[in-house]
């Protein structure tokens, strides 16, 4: 029997577990958290990610729970549209992270919750998959040294508020942006990304008083932004400092492979992180193949996975970083806005 150990029971770990189990592999998933999370932001499942979810046995459930995203637009802080509204090309579903994980967990083998791994000692599986996120211990094994995440110089505050929308809207201002997106369960997903240096002095602390912070930081912005801020569920607000990874020279070593944030953690500005993780999971499962055809030597198969996904993930990571800079820039905003309008006019 071909065996796989998966370190991390998040999106990538659960998707890989479901896909390999479908191919006859015996899979163990080690997750340090005591259970699936009850909170988290909304994630966009683009058509290619939905195709992976279908393969994993979770696509139907995700479509039932999620909300179709039909339109997307970028506006200035004052509410002026920067280019025309863009209609989604193909099915794009927005679903909250907890509901996505529940859907994948229902299709994956039982997860060993509360299993915090500090190294790979004692794992004698044919394949070991590092799906353990931006602070991956598996990455240290693959590279032979610690690679620290890089601060991007911006903070993110996310949460939810009651309501509904089928439009993904971002408002861009100097050093700040504010997003409003669909979300399942009768809620709207919101997020604020900001350069701390661009925030007015004497703002309340975003952890202690998220609504007060947002009121001060986004005073004078479009009424939709202000209305959303007034309606936020304070208890759902989460504040973190955005980070990504440098480009890694490898994501595979012998029988160990990295996927998702362990391989290419990225800024959230393209909304592609979860999708890239699912594409990693599918490529890894394809490279390994069915358990009854596995030769017992994973190195050649994992080399094929690395060729398929290392540079692809890193390209998206670089584009996400560039989009973050474009959205938050305080310089050359007028040419940027004209360029966006021009792109939208011919898109």
TrEMBL record:
Gene3D superfamilies: FAD/NAD(P)-binding domain (3.50.50.60). GO terms for molecular function: FAD binding; monooxygenase activity. The keyword Oxidoreductase applies. InterPro entries: FAD-bd, FAD-dep_Monooxygenase_BioMet, FAD/NAD-bd_sf. The keyword Transcription does not apply. Keywords: Monooxygenase, Oxidoreductase. Residues 3-101, 124-317 form the FAD-binding domain. It comes from the Bacteria. PANTHER family: MONOOXYGENASE, PUTATIVE (AFU_ORTHOLOGUE AFUA_6G14510)-RELATED. This is NAD(P)/FAD-dependent oxidoreductase. It comes from Tsukamurella strandjordii.
């Amino acid at each position: 029997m071909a065996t796989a150990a998966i370190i991390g029971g998040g999106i990538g770990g659960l998707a890989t577990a479901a896909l390999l189990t479908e191919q006859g592999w015996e899979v163990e998933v080690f997750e340090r958290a005591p259970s699936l999370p009850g909170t988290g932001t909304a994630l966009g499942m683009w058509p290619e990610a939905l195709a992976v979810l279908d393969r994993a046995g979770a696509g139907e459930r995700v479509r039932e729970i999620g909300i179709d995203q039909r339109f997307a637009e970028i506006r200035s802080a004052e509410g002026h549209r920067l280019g025309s509204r863009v209609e989604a090309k193909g099915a794009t579903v927005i679903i909250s992270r907890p509901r996505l994980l529940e859907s994948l967990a229902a299709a994956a083998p039982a997860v060993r919750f509360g299993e915090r791994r500090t190294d790979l000692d004692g794992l004698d599986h044919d394949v070991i998959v590092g799906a353990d996120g931006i602070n991956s211990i598996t990455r240290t094994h693959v590279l032979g040294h610690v690679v620290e995440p890089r601060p991007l110089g911006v903070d993110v505050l996310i949460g939810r508020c009651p309501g509904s929308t089928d439009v993904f809207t971002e408002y861009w201002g100097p050093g700040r942006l504010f997003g409003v997106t669909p979300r399942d369960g009768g809620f709207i997903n919101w997020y604020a990304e900001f350069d701390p240096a661009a925030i007015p002095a004497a703002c309340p602390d975003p952890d202690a008083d998220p609504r007060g912070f947002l009121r001060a930081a986004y005073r004078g912005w479009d009424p939709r932004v202000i209305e959303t801020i007034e309606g936020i569920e304070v208890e759902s607000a989460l504040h973190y400092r955005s980070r990504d990874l440098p480009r890694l020279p490898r994501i595979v070593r012998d029988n160990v492979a990295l996927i998702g944030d362990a391989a290419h953690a990225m800024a959230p500005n393209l909304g592609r992180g979860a999708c890239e993780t699912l594409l990693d999971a599918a490529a890894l499962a394809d490279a390994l193949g069915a358990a009854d055809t596995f030769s017992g030597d994973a190195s050649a198969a994992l080399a094929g996975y690395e060729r398929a996904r290392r540079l692809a993930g890193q390209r998206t990571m670089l584009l996400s970083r560039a989009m973050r800079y474009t959205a938050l820039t305080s310089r050359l905003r007028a040419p940027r806005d004209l360029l966006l309008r021009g792109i939208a006019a011919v898109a």
